[in-house]
Amino acid sequence: MLVDELCRLYSIIKTILNYGLSDFVPTHRLIFPLRIGSRFLLRVLNKHSQLTLGERFRLALQELGPIWIKFGQMLSTRRDIFPDSVADQLSILQDRVAPFDGIIAKMCIERAIGNSLETWFKDFQEIPLASASISQVHSARLKKNNKDIVIKIIRPGLLPIIKIDICLMYRLAKWICKFLPEGRKFKFLEVVSEYEKTLFNELNLLKETANTIQLRRNFKKSQILYIPKVYVDFCSENVMVMERIYGIPVYNLVALKKQKTNMKLLAERGIEIFFTQVFRDSFFHGDMHPGNIFISYKHPGNPKYISVDCGIVGSLNKKDKYYLAANFIAFFNHDYRKIAELHLDSGWIPLDTNIEDFECAMRTVFEPIFEQPLEKIPFSKILLYLFNTARYFNMEIQPQLILLQKTLLYIEGIVRQLYPNLNLWKSAQPFLERWMRDQLKLSTTICALKDKIPHWIDKIPELPNLLSHEFKRSCMLQKKIEILIRELRTQRTNHGQALFLFGVGATLVTSSIFLYIQDKYLKIFSIFLFVIGIFIWTIGWKRIIQ
């Protein structure tokens, strides 16, 4: 482990100790001694005992940096896991992280645009509107049209810390795979790689600019979601300029209710936006924590979402979308056989899995859960039980679904805060069934063929060459297979002969030693047998290494 990684690991442990987070140590009996020791140490070293647990947890995550802050943002939506006192503190991490100096921000902006800030903007506010884990936002106005805008700037000095944290995550993932055989099926290395990619994408504001433009295009005429305009002339890797939006933060339930917002419709539209992005567009906002979502002041009876911070986006291919939708519908219908078949067909579980056993395991786990009212059953609980059950059948975690799962948890947490009695399953089912029906329509098939036909036409002139090339490759492959079969047969014969020679040699060596000890008149003969035995052993060894 490198020195900088050791220093960072020391810093992480020290922060955890300094904030006395003993109450988050699990109570499982296998780590009971660790819990006792950590509770003693944490309480001895706790420098913030006057603060509540929620405050200590938030401050520790904030001190540890962007990766940890993003973890806290996700946890802030899980009020079914944490008490309100903790969730309220973690929600501060959504857009109220301690800011960096506005003067430094101004200098970074001027360096990025290559001019003094006053050349293009006016009324720049050094006090930020919002400050998050990776960036902060300042308000200003465009001189050319007097439009209100916001300027987003990446926090300086983040990259070294993020790189070290990612290295530590990789090292931990390798240790898990090495020491826990079951850890391999969870593809921790692939998960860390996926997280690294999305995190570094978020550090590049040009990618966020492109993502925002794409999402805005997808919902250009939408009545349920608005994406603000981006001023691309001023955007770079470290700076992004976009129109300023005005709305109520989605977590401000008091303000939403005060203006008589239709909370049930608002919650339903949150589910609709998520499934529309995933299944219609195959392009979804992957960082939909409450700090990035606002509700328009206009038409509270017909509420409209406003979404910002599109640095993290995800997409699914057609196969993944189909299996995901089909799995949800099978859950709606309690069709556990279908769930088992889908997992097998998609390759999520090994092909030699006993499908009847998998179906039985699913039914055993989920039937008691579905006895509860559907509105009380969280998606997160279903996912948890699904993975725990499938784990016993060697299911491999799909890295491409990790971001989708995180986004679904965000949406579920937000929706349940807005309207706790909403039946998420009932809201999602019509959308998924309609999408599945659309995939089977003749018009959908014709459209898919129309998209492919130009590509096929381009390939027709090349078809003879392609067929000839494939024929040659097939012949070469056949020859290689024949050579490999001959080599395997030769190797098998050599190994058989080697085992025989080893046996003969061992018998001769053992006999020679016995004769040498027992009969002094046969010493010369025993030495002769020993030499012959070693010689036969050598021949056997040569047979193996040939």
Average pLDDT confidence is 79
By helix and strand content, what is the structural category? alpha+beta
Instruction: Give the amount of beta strand, in percent.
Output: 5-15%
Overall radius of gyration:
32 Å
Number of strands: 11
In helices, the fraction of residues equals 55-70%
Uncertain residue ranges:
28-32
Shape: extended
Roughly how many Å apart are the termini? 41 Å
Biggest sheet, in brief? 5 strands, antiparallel
Family: Belongs to the protein kinase superfamily. ADCK protein kinase family.
Pathway: Cofactor biosynthesis; ubiquinone biosynthesis [regulation]
Organism: Candidatus Blochmanniella chromaiodes str. 640
Keywords: ATP-binding, Cell inner membrane, Cell membrane, Kinase, Membrane, Nucleotide-binding, Transferase, Transmembrane, Transmembrane helix, Ubiquinone, Ubiquinone biosynthesis
Describe this structure in words.
This is Ubiquinone biosynthesis protein UbiB. Belongs to the protein kinase superfamily. ADCK protein kinase family. Residues 93-343 form the ABC1 atypical kinase-like domain. This protein is an alpha+beta fold. Helix content is 61%, strand content 7%. It contains 20 helices and 11 strands. It has helices at 3-18, 32-45, 53-64, 66-75, 84-91, 102-113, 159-179, 188-202, 205-218, 253-258, 263-281, 318-332, 336-346, 355-369, 379-391, 399-418, 424-440, 442-459, 463-518, 523-545, and strands at 121-122, 130-131, 135-142, 148-154, 225-226, 239-243, 247-249, 284-285, 293-296, 305-307, 313-314. Strands 1, 2, 3, 4 and 6 form a 5-stranded antiparallel sheet that branches. Strand 9 (293-296) and strand 10 (305-307) form a beta hairpin. Helix 7 (159-179) runs antiparallel to helix 8, helix 12 (318-332) crosses helix 17 (424-440) and helix 13 (336-346) packs across helix 14 (355-369). It is extended, with a radius of gyration of 32 Å. The model is unreliable at 28-32 (pLDDT under 50).
